[in-house]
Amino acid sequence: MTLDRSRAAPTLEGGTRAFGPLVTLTPDSFAIDGHWYPRRRYPDRSALQPLRRPPDPAHWDSQLTRLPPISDLAGEVPDESEIFTHITPSMARVLRRIADLDSAAGQHGFILLVGPTGCGKTTMAKTYCYLANQPCTELTFSGDTALSDFYASVELVRDSALQQSTLTVPGPAVEAMLRGKKLLLNEINMLPPDLLNIFSQAMDTGRLVLSGTERGNVEITVHGDFGLIGTANPNYIGTLEMGRAIERRFGRGLGFIEMDFLPPDEEAEAVEHEFASLPIFARLGIRIDSTLCQRVANLAASLRRDPQIGNVMQSHLSTRTLVHWLGIAQITGLPLADVLEQALLTTVPADARARAVQAAREHLGEARLDADATERVRPFRVQWPTLAPGKAVPVDSAGAPPRDPIAAPPPRRPGAIHRLRFIRPLPDGGKVLIAERMVADASGPAGWRFGQGIRIRAYDASGRQIRDPDRLDEILRLLRDQDGLNVPAPLGRRLRPKELLPCLTAHTVRILALMEAALLLGRPVFVAGPTGSGKSSLARTLAYLRGRTVVEMGFTGETAKTDLSAVRRLIGGVTRWQTQGFLEALAAGHTIIANEYNLAYSDVHSLLNGLFDKGARLALPDGRVYRVHPSAWVIATGYLDGPGVKPLNEGVENRFGAIVSVSYPPVGDEVAILRFVAPSADAATIERCVRLVDYCRRLVAGKVDPATLVGLSRSAQEALRQAARRAALSTAELVAIARAGGGPDFAERLRIGILEGAPENVRRILEPVLLQYGLGGD
After folding, report:
1. Contacts of range 366-370, beta carbons closer than 8 Å, 24 or more positions apart
2. What is this structure's pTM?
3. What integer pLDDT is reported at residue 386 of this predicted model?
């Protein structure tokens, strides 16, 4: 059973339900602050009675006999997992204004909600649709959105005589106009303003002309219940400036509704209810202390008003962020100020982050959430070891979580048949059976299947089945190398220990625990840090310890939104929209590791907006809706700055449950890692090497005490930094050197790696430094 993501509103006498003191819901109507509005009703069956007539000729194609039942629309009304189940007075005022506009003659429900990210715009729109019992189609726009993505596209089709032709196929926006659904357009100010004319034409005239459809050139009458609700984050990365033309189109004082964060008293109330509705806490009945909620809301309000850092805090400390903040603190048991510093303000400029964290420590001290509740959550977490600094243990020292927090049905897999193809003797006298996985082809004729991957069953010389994963990997490698059996496989693989962190330290356990906490809240995670600091290995290690299947992909500056969502393909002589691997992996409940996430542009990032809002779904251009499986995870990795790095759109950034900064380990932990990898290496030599590399990293980053450089000319300081760049190796490079040498010649390999190919002027600086650290040549 899929876990309900929210607490149901209380049911009162006669089926009446209360969503706070100002909002009441009955089966036929709803009230906001004493004003009543009707709810849309859907008859169980149509009153249309088919006439008994001879069947149509075979070559006739009727519109009327294929109409979907009107009752189907009820299934497209947002459910309680997507809405606010507790509505404060300020929220009620916005809802009442939406309800008044939607029911007003001549307004046509043309509404725009404008405000900072995380203040509840999308959820407010869905809450209204739920109260009014209105079906809703949600679309999320980006800078590369075209009319073919939502309005109409030209597709290649075959007619009854199997002749190819092109047709205009209506998209989800046109279907909403035909059937009377509300069209929720997120990030509407990422859409070029001229494309909005499509909607204004339909709303102004109540008519829409489509040319080249399968029924010729047609005119559509816009359904009376159709309405458009747009949301916009003003002046964010990737958005277009909202001029007076857009404002007039919605109407200042009418459909143009500005939202802001709730007053602190109301925000505390809302956060308390949203916290309790998170699946993991709802399952355990965990609530948060209202006094602590109030303190956090007061702090957030003061930081947003701060004359120096208020603009930054508006997008980084939203109401949504407060829920993430408290949720991570509850799961990890860490002080609130530590969670703020380590998982929420990572991308904030250093001076603003320091000021905000200082304010949090002054306002909250060492406040933590209920320790008993943290213990109740512990069975759902990896059993992390408690480690002292400078100690390293095997990854398997962390125990798998005893319980699964998501009580959801397993994702549906495409039907597959394994056809036995080969038997092969093994060099040790055993044998292996090789079967091909034949998958049902949903896009082809009935019964069609295609090969996708292999499955093996191996036996040793005595006939016993081989189950050791490492031995099976060796057999697969033999089949690849000697028999050429290296074929594409289905998405989702199990990780092997060699792909993980080499060991666990206090440094990595802290990061992993923060990542896990955000993912347990049902949110994506962004892991930011320099090259070679272990970002991807951290993600793989967490997925491995939780027994997850992984789909790992890399982003570039060429990555487009269609690379992740859906793309047109020519199948059987006709064009069809096919979902891409990213979306398929989310629907199948895999863990996606998206490496170098912020090398892609902001319009690609915007895909996360719909996928990780409360509805967790995405509408495709062909009208299909993909839902994120409750067990799916997204772990993105990237750099905070550097060549090719793109700034994250604030709305997307705000949807990450945590943005965890990964730095190189402290010296003691890095020494412990290298000694774990190369136990025969001399401990003192390893420490000297790490201290040298650490000094060079700090020098390159400008974090060395300037007093140590006094007396050096500017050119000498630049030469020193140039030399330091060669010695500022990453942890991954140090681990590779330790593994390659096995330990005894670690220092010599490091020396060669630093000096090899260095210009003479750089060598003159580096050699005395290496000698000073005991790394001189023989």
Report:
1. 366/335, 366/337, 367/292, 367/295, 367/335, 367/336, 367/337, 368/329, 368/333, 368/334, 368/335, 368/336, 369/288, 369/289, 369/292, 369/326, 369/329, 369/330, 369/333, 369/336, 370/286, 370/288, 370/289, 370/330
2. 0.88
3. 95
